[in-house]
Amino acid sequence: MIPIKLLMHINSSKEKVYNALTKADELSKWYTTIVNGEFKLNEIINVEFVNFAEFKFKVIALSQNESVHFEIVKSEFDNVGHLMKYDLDENDGKTRVRYTYEGFNEMDDSYANMNYSSAKYLESLRQYCQSGKGEAFGSTSYRS
Length: 144
Known about the structure:
Blueprint: E1 2-10, H1 14-22, H2 24-30, E2 34-36, E3 44-49, E4 53-63, E5 67-75, E6 83-91, E7 94-104, H3 109-131
Antiparallel strand pairs: 1-7, 2-3, 3-4, 4-5, 5-6, 6-7
Helix pairs in contact: 1-2, 1-3
């Protein structure tokens, strides 16, 4: 397996970043505008990218203000079983986000697309946590 690994720093508390990752109303401000479900272990989160795709994520690990991991359990693409992991810690007064996306067997076009998309949404997460305004898919601020 070839993981995508990204690292970034957000000038916000771990609690704020964790909430942005685990509350549907906040996730909808920086990721995609339609998010439904409860962020509890083994629960399913429904995520819709309007006029593009729908996904179901299963919460497979959750540690307050430290980490949230998802498994894609339903998708229109060939990524069922892939894992997305957000691990948080403090570094120099900021929240360090270590993001890992696992499930690729090769660095093909799908890998390249997900690498770019993951980085774009992490930057949206940073903007949301630092300024209160993200660039969620389907929002007026989304850059396509």
